[in-house]
Protein backbone atom coordinates (compact mmCIF):
# COMPACT_ATOMS: atom_id res chain seq x y z
CA UNK A 1 0.00 0.00 0.00
CA UNK A 2 1.39 3.42 -0.90
CA UNK A 3 2.26 5.77 1.95
CA UNK A 4 1.38 8.82 -0.10
CA UNK A 5 -0.90 8.91 -3.14
CA UNK A 6 -1.86 11.92 -5.20
CA UNK A 7 -4.47 11.38 -7.86
CA UNK A 8 -5.36 13.85 -10.57
CA UNK A 9 -4.08 16.69 -8.45
CA UNK A 10 -4.15 20.24 -9.74
CA UNK A 11 -2.90 23.39 -8.04
CA UNK A 12 -3.74 26.84 -9.30
CA UNK A 13 -2.56 29.68 -7.07
CA UNK A 14 -5.12 32.42 -6.50
CA UNK A 15 -4.83 35.10 -9.16
CA UNK A 16 -2.63 32.93 -11.38
CA UNK A 17 -3.76 32.08 -14.91
CA UNK A 18 -1.60 28.96 -15.19
CA UNK A 19 -1.60 25.78 -13.13
CA UNK A 20 1.48 25.28 -10.96
CA UNK A 21 0.73 21.52 -11.05
CA UNK A 22 -1.77 19.61 -13.16
CA UNK A 23 -3.01 16.06 -13.77
CA UNK A 24 -0.58 14.86 -11.14
CA UNK A 25 -0.71 11.14 -10.38
CA UNK A 26 2.00 10.13 -7.96
CA UNK A 27 2.27 7.13 -5.66
CA UNK A 28 5.04 7.01 -3.12
CA UNK A 29 5.40 3.57 -1.58
CA UNK A 30 6.41 2.84 1.96
CA UNK A 31 10.22 3.03 2.24
CA UNK A 32 10.72 4.68 -1.11
CA UNK A 33 13.28 7.44 -1.75
CA UNK A 34 11.38 9.55 -4.25
CA UNK A 35 13.11 12.47 -5.93
CA UNK A 36 11.03 15.15 -7.62
CA UNK A 37 13.42 16.43 -10.28
CA UNK A 38 12.94 19.31 -12.68
CA UNK A 39 13.90 22.84 -13.63
CA UNK A 40 13.02 25.92 -11.59
CA UNK A 41 9.28 26.62 -11.58
CA UNK A 42 8.18 23.15 -12.72
CA UNK A 43 6.01 22.57 -9.64
CA UNK A 44 8.26 20.44 -7.40
CA UNK A 45 7.96 22.62 -4.32
CA UNK A 46 4.23 23.05 -4.81
CA UNK A 47 3.85 19.26 -4.90
CA UNK A 48 5.85 18.87 -1.70
CA UNK A 49 3.94 21.66 0.03
CA UNK A 50 0.63 20.01 -0.85
CA UNK A 51 1.83 16.72 0.64
CA UNK A 52 2.93 18.63 3.74
CA UNK A 53 -0.41 20.41 4.03
CA UNK A 54 1.10 23.87 3.52
CA UNK A 55 -0.98 24.31 0.36
CA UNK A 56 -4.39 22.88 -0.37
CA UNK A 57 -5.38 21.20 -3.62
CA UNK A 58 -7.40 22.94 -6.35
CA UNK A 59 -8.55 19.56 -7.68
CA UNK A 60 -7.90 15.87 -7.08
CA UNK A 61 -7.21 13.88 -3.96
CA UNK A 62 -4.29 13.26 -1.61
CA UNK A 63 -4.04 10.24 0.66
CA UNK A 64 -1.49 9.43 3.31
CA UNK A 65 -1.77 5.79 4.34
CA UNK A 66 -5.45 4.92 4.07
CA UNK A 67 -6.61 8.38 5.05
CA UNK A 68 -7.69 11.15 2.68
CA UNK A 69 -5.85 14.22 3.99
CA UNK A 70 -6.98 16.65 1.31
CA UNK A 71 -9.40 16.67 -1.57
CA UNK A 72 -10.98 19.49 -3.48
CA UNK A 73 -14.38 17.82 -3.29
CA UNK A 74 -14.90 17.24 0.40
CA UNK A 75 -13.83 19.14 3.48
CA UNK A 76 -11.15 16.62 4.26
CA UNK A 77 -8.20 18.90 4.93
CA UNK A 78 -5.90 17.56 7.64
CA UNK A 79 -3.53 20.27 8.96
CA UNK A 80 0.26 19.80 8.63
CA UNK A 81 0.86 19.03 12.31
CA UNK A 82 -1.54 16.07 12.13
CA UNK A 83 0.08 14.47 9.09
CA UNK A 84 3.07 13.05 11.01
CA UNK A 85 5.63 14.18 8.47
CA UNK A 86 9.15 15.56 8.95
CA UNK A 87 9.88 18.66 6.92
CA UNK A 88 13.09 20.43 5.93
CA UNK A 89 12.91 23.31 3.51
CA UNK A 90 15.65 25.25 1.81
CA UNK A 91 14.94 28.14 4.13
CA UNK A 92 15.01 26.39 7.48
CA UNK A 93 13.95 28.21 10.57
CA UNK A 94 16.13 27.46 13.57
CA UNK A 95 15.24 28.99 16.91
CA UNK A 96 17.69 31.91 17.21
CA UNK A 97 17.56 32.02 21.03
CA UNK A 98 18.30 28.29 21.47
CA UNK A 99 21.68 26.60 21.27
CA UNK A 100 22.37 24.06 18.54
CA UNK A 101 21.84 21.24 21.01
CA UNK A 102 18.48 22.65 22.13
CA UNK A 103 17.48 23.22 18.51
CA UNK A 104 18.36 19.60 17.75
CA UNK A 105 16.47 18.08 20.67
CA UNK A 106 13.53 20.48 20.34
CA UNK A 107 11.14 17.92 18.85
CA UNK A 108 12.14 15.27 21.39
CA UNK A 109 11.39 17.63 24.29
CA UNK A 110 8.08 18.56 22.68
CA UNK A 111 7.19 14.86 22.49
CA UNK A 112 8.33 14.34 26.10
CA UNK A 113 10.81 11.62 25.14
CA UNK A 114 12.49 10.33 28.35
CA UNK A 115 15.75 12.16 29.15
CA UNK A 116 18.22 9.28 28.67
CA UNK A 117 16.76 8.42 25.26
CA UNK A 118 16.58 12.09 24.30
CA UNK A 119 20.27 12.60 25.07
CA UNK A 120 21.28 9.47 23.19
CA UNK A 121 19.25 10.29 20.09
CA UNK A 122 20.45 13.89 20.07
CA UNK A 123 24.08 12.79 20.41
CA UNK A 124 23.71 10.15 17.70
CA UNK A 125 22.18 12.48 15.18
CA UNK A 126 24.57 15.36 15.96
CA UNK A 127 27.50 13.01 15.48
CA UNK A 128 26.06 11.60 12.24
CA UNK A 129 25.72 15.11 10.82
CA UNK A 130 29.03 16.38 12.19
CA UNK A 131 27.62 19.21 14.29
CA UNK A 132 28.48 18.04 17.83
CA UNK A 133 31.28 20.59 18.13
CA UNK A 134 28.73 23.40 17.74
CA UNK A 135 26.35 22.16 20.42
CA UNK A 136 26.74 25.24 22.66
CA UNK A 137 26.69 27.82 19.90
CA UNK A 138 23.69 29.76 18.61
CA UNK A 139 22.41 29.57 15.00
CA UNK A 140 23.72 33.07 14.16
CA UNK A 141 27.25 31.79 14.93
CA UNK A 142 27.04 29.09 12.24
CA UNK A 143 27.43 29.22 8.46
CA UNK A 144 24.45 28.56 6.19
CA UNK A 145 25.64 25.01 5.52
CA UNK A 146 26.11 24.27 9.21
CA UNK A 147 22.62 25.62 9.94
CA UNK A 148 21.24 23.40 7.21
CA UNK A 149 22.78 20.38 8.92
CA UNK A 150 21.21 21.42 12.22
CA UNK A 151 17.81 21.65 10.50
CA UNK A 152 18.30 18.10 9.17
CA UNK A 153 19.47 16.84 12.55
CA UNK A 154 16.46 18.36 14.33
CA UNK A 155 14.16 16.57 11.96
CA UNK A 156 16.00 13.24 11.99
CA UNK A 157 16.08 13.18 15.79
CA UNK A 158 12.34 12.57 15.97
CA UNK A 159 12.60 9.77 13.33
CA UNK A 160 9.47 10.60 11.38
CA UNK A 161 8.08 7.86 9.11
CA UNK A 162 8.07 10.24 6.16
CA UNK A 163 10.61 12.95 5.43
CA UNK A 164 9.84 15.78 3.04
CA UNK A 165 13.01 17.55 1.93
CA UNK A 166 13.17 20.58 -0.34
CA UNK A 167 16.70 21.11 -1.64
CA UNK A 168 18.04 20.41 1.85
CA UNK A 169 21.68 20.30 0.71
CA UNK A 170 21.66 23.45 -1.40
CA UNK A 171 23.84 25.51 0.94
CA UNK A 172 26.60 22.96 1.34
CA UNK A 173 29.91 22.94 -0.48
CA UNK A 174 30.62 20.13 -2.95
CA UNK A 175 32.39 17.78 -0.55
CA UNK A 176 29.94 18.18 2.31
CA UNK A 177 27.07 17.83 -0.09
CA UNK A 178 28.42 14.48 -1.21
CA UNK A 179 28.99 13.36 2.38
CA UNK A 180 25.46 14.38 3.33
CA UNK A 181 24.03 12.51 0.36
CA UNK A 182 25.82 9.39 1.53
CA UNK A 183 24.53 10.04 5.05
CA UNK A 184 20.95 10.48 3.85
CA UNK A 185 21.23 7.29 1.86
CA UNK A 186 22.49 5.45 4.95
CA UNK A 187 19.66 6.90 7.04
CA UNK A 188 17.17 5.78 4.42
CA UNK A 189 18.65 2.27 4.35
CA UNK A 190 18.91 2.00 8.12
CA UNK A 191 15.53 3.35 9.19
CA UNK A 192 13.44 2.52 6.11
CA UNK A 193 12.15 6.09 6.18
CA UNK A 194 10.01 7.16 3.24
CA UNK A 195 11.70 10.20 1.73
CA UNK A 196 10.35 12.72 -0.76
CA UNK A 197 13.22 14.90 -1.93
CA UNK A 198 12.93 17.94 -4.18
CA UNK A 199 15.94 18.84 -6.30
CA UNK A 200 16.82 20.43 -9.61
CA UNK A 201 20.17 18.62 -9.53
CA UNK A 202 20.13 15.53 -11.69
CA UNK A 203 23.19 14.00 -10.03
CA UNK A 204 21.62 14.39 -6.63
CA UNK A 205 18.48 12.62 -7.87
CA UNK A 206 20.49 9.89 -9.63
CA UNK A 207 22.63 9.10 -6.61
CA UNK A 208 19.84 9.17 -4.02
CA UNK A 209 16.55 8.07 -5.49
CA UNK A 210 14.93 4.67 -5.71
CA UNK A 211 12.38 6.40 -7.95
CA UNK A 212 12.67 9.70 -9.81
CA UNK A 213 9.68 11.72 -11.00
CA UNK A 214 10.88 14.17 -13.66
CA UNK A 215 8.62 17.23 -13.82
CA UNK A 216 8.24 20.06 -16.30
CA UNK A 217 5.54 22.72 -16.63
CA UNK A 218 3.56 21.29 -13.73
CA UNK A 219 3.37 17.82 -15.28
CA UNK A 220 5.22 14.59 -14.52
CA UNK A 221 7.16 13.71 -17.65
CA UNK A 222 8.44 10.34 -16.52
CA UNK A 223 8.60 8.28 -13.39
CA UNK A 224 11.07 5.45 -12.99
CA UNK A 225 14.32 4.20 -11.52
CA UNK A 226 17.41 6.34 -12.14
CA UNK A 227 18.40 3.74 -14.74
CA UNK A 228 15.05 4.00 -16.56
CA UNK A 229 15.26 7.77 -16.67
CA UNK A 230 18.79 7.76 -18.06
CA UNK A 231 18.68 4.69 -20.31
CA UNK A 232 15.10 4.99 -21.54
CA UNK A 233 14.04 8.66 -21.41
CA UNK A 234 10.31 8.83 -22.19
CA UNK A 235 10.52 11.99 -24.24
CA UNK A 236 12.77 14.73 -25.54
CA UNK A 237 12.50 16.82 -22.38
CA UNK A 238 13.72 14.01 -20.10
CA UNK A 239 16.47 13.02 -22.54
CA UNK A 240 17.81 16.57 -22.61
CA UNK A 241 17.34 17.36 -18.93
CA UNK A 242 19.18 14.32 -17.63
CA UNK A 243 22.81 13.73 -18.60
CA UNK A 244 25.91 15.90 -18.63
CA UNK A 245 27.27 16.72 -21.13
CA UNK A 246 23.76 16.57 -22.60
CA UNK A 247 22.57 13.94 -25.03
CA UNK A 248 23.38 14.61 -28.71
CA UNK A 249 20.14 15.14 -30.62
CA UNK A 250 19.92 14.80 -34.36
CA UNK A 251 16.83 16.27 -36.07
CA UNK A 252 16.01 13.66 -38.70
CA UNK A 253 14.30 16.10 -41.05
CA UNK A 254 17.16 18.62 -40.90
CA UNK A 255 18.53 17.47 -44.22
CA UNK A 256 22.06 16.98 -42.88
CA UNK A 257 24.40 14.16 -43.94
CA UNK A 258 24.34 12.74 -40.40
CA UNK A 259 20.51 12.59 -40.42
CA UNK A 260 20.62 10.81 -43.79
CA UNK A 261 23.32 8.38 -42.59
CA UNK A 262 21.32 7.51 -39.47
CA UNK A 263 18.10 7.09 -41.48
CA UNK A 264 19.79 4.72 -43.89
CA UNK A 265 21.42 2.78 -41.02
CA UNK A 266 18.10 2.42 -39.19
CA UNK A 267 16.32 1.41 -42.39
CA UNK A 268 15.98 -2.35 -42.31
CA UNK A 269 16.47 -2.43 -38.56
CA UNK A 270 13.18 -0.65 -37.98
CA UNK A 271 9.72 -1.02 -39.50
CA UNK A 272 8.94 2.66 -39.69
CA UNK A 273 12.04 4.80 -40.07
CA UNK A 274 9.90 7.62 -41.44
CA UNK A 275 8.29 8.15 -38.04
CA UNK A 276 11.63 8.92 -36.39
CA UNK A 277 11.83 12.70 -36.02
CA UNK A 278 14.69 12.86 -33.55
CA UNK A 279 17.61 10.59 -32.71
CA UNK A 280 19.52 10.82 -29.46
CA UNK A 281 23.02 9.51 -28.76
CA UNK A 282 24.54 9.82 -25.28
CA UNK A 283 28.10 11.24 -25.29
CA UNK A 284 29.57 8.08 -23.75
CA UNK A 285 27.97 5.92 -26.46
CA UNK A 286 30.20 7.41 -29.15
CA UNK A 287 33.51 5.67 -29.79
CA UNK A 288 36.18 7.13 -32.05
CA UNK A 289 38.47 5.04 -34.25
CA UNK A 290 41.43 6.29 -36.22
CA UNK A 291 41.80 3.08 -38.22
CA UNK A 292 38.80 2.05 -40.37
CA UNK A 293 39.65 -1.64 -40.00
CA UNK A 294 38.93 -1.44 -36.24
CA UNK A 295 35.32 -0.40 -36.85
CA UNK A 296 32.92 -3.13 -35.70
CA UNK A 297 30.77 -4.64 -38.46
CA UNK A 298 27.19 -4.01 -37.41
CA UNK A 299 27.71 -0.59 -35.82
CA UNK A 300 26.75 2.78 -37.18
CA UNK A 301 29.84 4.61 -38.42
CA UNK A 302 30.53 7.97 -39.95
CA UNK A 303 33.63 10.00 -40.81
CA UNK A 304 34.25 12.79 -38.33
CA UNK A 305 36.76 15.51 -37.51
CA UNK A 306 37.94 16.42 -34.03
CA UNK A 307 37.10 20.03 -33.20
CA UNK A 308 38.38 20.19 -29.65
CA UNK A 309 39.40 18.23 -26.57
CA UNK A 310 38.26 19.54 -23.18
CA UNK A 311 39.87 17.99 -20.10
CA UNK A 312 37.51 17.84 -17.12
CA UNK A 313 39.91 16.24 -14.63
CA UNK A 314 40.04 12.46 -14.97
CA UNK A 315 37.81 12.46 -18.03
CA UNK A 316 37.62 14.34 -21.31
CA UNK A 317 34.90 15.82 -23.47
CA UNK A 318 35.72 15.59 -27.15
CA UNK A 319 33.93 17.76 -29.71
CA UNK A 320 33.56 16.09 -33.08
CA UNK A 321 31.98 17.33 -36.26
CA UNK A 322 30.26 14.53 -38.16
CA UNK A 323 27.92 14.81 -41.15
CA UNK A 324 27.36 18.52 -40.66
CA UNK A 325 26.68 18.48 -36.93
CA UNK A 326 28.75 19.10 -33.82
CA UNK A 327 28.55 16.25 -31.30
CA UNK A 328 29.99 15.72 -27.84
CA UNK A 329 31.54 12.48 -26.69
CA UNK A 330 33.12 11.62 -23.36
CA UNK A 331 36.01 9.35 -22.52
CA UNK A 332 37.91 8.31 -19.41
CA UNK A 333 41.01 7.41 -21.40
CA UNK A 334 43.32 10.32 -22.19
CA UNK A 335 42.70 11.03 -25.89
CA UNK A 336 45.72 10.91 -28.17
CA UNK A 337 43.72 12.92 -30.69
CA UNK A 338 43.71 16.65 -31.22
CA UNK A 339 41.78 19.25 -33.19
CA UNK A 340 41.80 18.63 -36.94
CA UNK A 341 42.35 14.85 -36.74
CA UNK A 342 40.20 12.63 -38.96
CA UNK A 343 38.39 9.78 -37.21
CA UNK A 344 35.47 7.42 -37.62
CA UNK A 345 32.72 7.76 -35.04
CA UNK A 346 31.02 4.53 -34.09
CA UNK A 347 27.74 3.94 -32.29
CA UNK A 348 26.29 0.56 -31.28
CA UNK A 349 22.74 -0.02 -32.59
CA UNK A 350 21.24 -0.30 -29.10
CA UNK A 351 22.60 3.13 -28.17
CA UNK A 352 20.19 5.08 -30.40
CA UNK A 353 17.26 6.76 -28.66
CA UNK A 354 14.43 7.36 -31.11
CA UNK A 355 11.66 9.92 -30.71
CA UNK A 356 8.62 10.72 -32.85
CA UNK A 357 7.39 14.12 -34.03
CA UNK A 358 5.77 14.78 -30.64
CA UNK A 359 9.10 14.15 -28.91
CA UNK A 360 7.82 10.88 -27.43
CA UNK A 361 10.09 7.86 -27.21
CA UNK A 362 9.52 5.18 -29.84
CA UNK A 363 9.90 1.54 -28.88
CA UNK A 364 13.49 0.63 -29.64
P1 LIG B 1 12.12 26.07 -7.75
O1 LIG B 1 13.09 24.96 -8.00
O2 LIG B 1 12.53 27.37 -8.39
O3 LIG B 1 11.72 26.21 -6.31
P2 LIG B 1 9.72 24.54 -8.32
O4 LIG B 1 9.85 23.51 -9.36
O5 LIG B 1 9.77 24.09 -6.91
O6 LIG B 1 10.78 25.69 -8.56
P3 LIG B 1 7.22 25.79 -7.62
O7 LIG B 1 7.82 26.62 -6.56
O8 LIG B 1 6.36 24.67 -7.24
O9 LIG B 1 8.33 25.28 -8.62
O10 LIG B 1 6.39 26.77 -8.59
C1 LIG B 1 5.57 26.30 -9.64
C2 LIG B 1 4.88 27.48 -10.30
O11 LIG B 1 3.96 28.08 -9.37
C3 LIG B 1 5.82 28.60 -10.71
O12 LIG B 1 5.37 29.12 -11.93
C4 LIG B 1 5.70 29.61 -9.59
O13 LIG B 1 5.94 30.90 -10.05
C5 LIG B 1 4.25 29.44 -9.14
N1 LIG B 1 4.07 29.72 -7.70
C6 LIG B 1 4.72 29.13 -6.68
N2 LIG B 1 4.29 29.58 -5.48
C7 LIG B 1 3.33 30.50 -5.76
C8 LIG B 1 2.48 31.35 -4.96
N3 LIG B 1 2.51 31.31 -3.62
N4 LIG B 1 1.62 32.16 -5.60
C9 LIG B 1 1.53 32.20 -6.96
N5 LIG B 1 2.30 31.43 -7.76
C10 LIG B 1 3.19 30.59 -7.19
From TrEMBL:
UniProt-listed InterPro entries = AAA+_ATPase (IPR003593), ABC_transporter-like_ATP-bd (IPR003439), ABC_transporter-like_CS (IPR017871), ABC_transpr_MalK/UgpC-like (IPR047641), Mo/tungstate-bd_C_term_dom (IPR008995), NA-bd_OB-fold (IPR012340), P-loop_NTPase (IPR027417), Transp-assoc_OB_typ2 (IPR013611)
SMART domains per the UniProt record, alphabetical: AAA (SM00382)
Q: Which PROSITE patterns match?
A: ABC_TRANSPORTER_1, ABC_TRANSPORTER_2
Molecular function (Gene Ontology), one example: ATP binding
Q: Which GO terms describe its cellular component?
A: ATP-binding cassette (ABC) transporter complex, substrate-binding subunit-containing
Q: Which SUPFAM superfamilies match?
A: MOP-like, P-loop containing nucleoside triphosphate hydrolases
Per the record, the similarity remark reads: Belongs to the ABC transporter superfamily.
Q: What is this protein called?
A: Carbohydrate ABC transporter ATP-binding protein (CUT1 family)
Say which species the protein is native to: Litoreibacter halocynthiae
Amino acid sequence: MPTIALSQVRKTYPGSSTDAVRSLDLEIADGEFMCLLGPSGCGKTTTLRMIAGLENLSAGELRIGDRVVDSAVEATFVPPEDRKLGLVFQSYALWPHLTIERNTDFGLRLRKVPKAERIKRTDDVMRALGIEQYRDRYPSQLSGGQQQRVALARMLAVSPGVLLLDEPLSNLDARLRLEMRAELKRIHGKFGTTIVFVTHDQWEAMTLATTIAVMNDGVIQQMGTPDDIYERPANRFVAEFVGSPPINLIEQNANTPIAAAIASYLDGRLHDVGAVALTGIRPEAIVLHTDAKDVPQDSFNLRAVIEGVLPTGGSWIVEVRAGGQLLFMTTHVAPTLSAGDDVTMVVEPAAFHLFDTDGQRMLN
